[in-house]
Amino acid sequence: MIQKSSRFQVPGSKLGTGRRVIVNFGTRNSEPGTRNFFSGGQALVEVALIFPIFLIVVFGVMQMGHIATMTLVVNHAAFEVARIGAIASEGIASGDEVSCSQASINKRKMLSVARGIFDRWPGRLVEPLDVQKVKTLNDPEVDRPNCDITLTLRYKMPLIFPFVNVMLARPPYGGYDPEVGMFRLIVGESRMPLEVPIWY
How large is the average pLDDT for residues 26-52? Predict the structure, then answer.
């Protein structure tokens, strides 16, 4: 074992004339497994370097779990709102032969249902809703095409965890909204057949 020490000599008046006291300020040991004078500072530096990375990993896992949860919510909401739109068509009486282009979708009712779902969440629903009518292939039973309704819901989910919110809010998948803050755009899509008889 090699030891290096810094020392100075102090004249000892109480210890007798000519006697000296040697004071060691610290030693550095080269033997493996021994605790040296600089180990505390080294551990502090290591923690200072690793701790931010550890926080980013933890916050990232929690934020991705939140995004996954809201993705399920938005997709289920799109299914429910599209179903409301499919059964709440306006201006079509049962048995009438009306084309898909002439069918009137109750977008007001759909928007009301969507607001009722997302009012409990801290984010913001993007309005107006993206609702389209799509002509389908011919129905072999009646030899006529049918009409479907397609809905795209967009929800601005606030990113609440630091560090990772900057990375996840980058366009085109996110951004900044004064009412929400940094957000991630969650998109849900659904397609439903109109439940009223519409013929061509």
Answer: 69
